[in-house]
Design a protein that fits this description.
By secondary structure, this protein is mainly beta. It has no helices and ten strands. The radius of gyration is 13 Å and the shape is globular.
């Protein structure tokens, strides 16, 4: 079991940027796919971006062109660079491995003010 700890959230104005980090307690080198999810109040958790071990990425239409996911296997860390933030990006953000679904971390709150 890998423990996941998210950080980097905060309060930002619309148009601003944040960089989220997800530190894993164990090696992510052998984990094929790592992803970032978010859950807004009253909504289901959704997968917004994922990255394969080879580096290929995929994004939800709502964040495409604004968010960039990356991974550093040597540091067992996954990142989410979020630019041009919108109020509708407000949510708690989590990372996980979509094909394995470890226990969820506490997430990191992102709040975008208009």
């Amino acid at each position: 079991q890998v423990l996941l700890v998210e950080s980097g959230g905060g309060l930002v104005q619309a148009g601003g940027s944040l960089r989220l980090s997800c530190a894993a307690s164990g090696s992510i080198f052998s984990i094929n796919v790592m992803g970032w999810y978010r859950q807004a109040p009253g909504k289901q958790r959704e997968l917004v971006a994922y990255i394969r071990s080879g580096g290929s990425t995929n994004y939800a239409d709502s964040v495409k062109g604004r968010f960039t996911i990356s991974r550093d296997n040597a540091k067992n860390t996954v990142y989410l660079q979020m630019n041009s933030l919108k109020p509708e990006d407000t949510a708690v953000y989590y990372c996980n491995a979509p094909q394995l679904l470890y226990n969820w971390g506490q997430g990191t709150q992102v709040t975008v003010s208009s």
